[in-house]
Amino acid sequence: MVARGLRLPRRWLAAPFFLWILVAAAFVGAGCASRPGLTWQRYEFERPQMGLPFRIVLYATDGHAATNAAEAAWKRIAELNSILSDYEEQSELSRLSRTAGSGRAIPIGPDLWRVLVRSQEMSRASGGAFDVTVGPLVQLWRRARRQRALPEPDRITAARAAVGWRWVELRYPTRSVRLVAPGMRLDLGAIAKGYALDEALAVLRHQGISRALVSGGGDMVVGEAPPGEPGWKVVVAPLDSPGAPPARTVWLRWASLCTSGDVFQHVEIGGVRYSHIVDPRTGIGLTDHSLVTVIARRGIAADALSTAVSVLGPVAGIRLVERTPSADGLVVRSVVSAGKLQFQTAETGGFRRWERRR
Length: 358
Ligand code: ADP
Ligand code: MG
Known about the structure:
- This protein has a domain at 92-179: T-fold (Orthogonal Bundle), CATH 1.10.3980.10.
- With 358 residues, it is an alpha+beta fold.
- The chain starts with a strand and ends in an 11-residue tail after the last strand.
- The protein is built from eight helices and 19 strands.
- Residues 190, 258, 260, 303, 306-307 line the site of magnesium ion.
């Protein structure tokens, strides 16, 4: 079993694709600040957040400004974790989940509201492939990973009875939420990190720093390019099998890149590899091996889309990304056909555009 993520007790987001993605932020350009006499310096900060290694890379002309801005961004991420985590018993999300089936609608704060609105949009757009009510199923599969045994079918049936995105009732005028079915449990593991990255970048901008990158696991959000560069150079490493299609290099500016797949977080039972991503329509962890990369304007969209595409598979998944304004995607999937390992690649028409050094 490979489930590095679960070693950390409070982690609520799955394991890192960060090993695959190298951010090659160029040092060139240091020394060409916009105002005469000022020199850009590159600053890098790292900290565990949300149970994952997070990183901030930014360019500033003054070390104090850089440190203060990074500190404010860390604070914002920690705050969002305390609101959106399903691991924290006292998070706003956990408190909301505990009201499931009570008939009550609970007023919620702006962050949770924004994430739930976006989640519901993604559920609708993906025909339910993306579904933050998968909590009860995710719990079952987390246990399966620990015990290395498949969940019993009747438990899956029972969990599925409490899974359904249409049972999240958003009441716009009062910004309150009613969870209709008893036993519902929300899990924002596929969207909250993207939102936290967006918000961290927003904090940096607020502090006057726009040439910045914030990453958590392998997901990232970037602002203005490093000085003198057309963008942030990001290498999306290949699927971890011999003969897989080669790495792709993209240049990002004011964009987010998020990945999703089964490689680091899965359990192998009876020769079958089950991912930490669950198909809400069947209750089963995904069994195909794929790496999905999505680029979008915002992290919240790229994060959610990458998970939706994992569930939908390359054809329907890429169709969904094509339908999403200013988003692009790449899916590399390995399949065994006639006893031979083969690779399928699917991508949006615009993906190659990101590979050009503009
Ligand atoms: P990573 O955690 O590697 O960034 P994802 O962004 O794809 O990967 O998020 C996976 C997490 O999302 C799971 O650990 C679980 O918490 C949650 N999840 C699993 N299946 C779904 C689904 N179908 N829809 C929404 N969230 C899901
Ligand atoms: Mg995701």
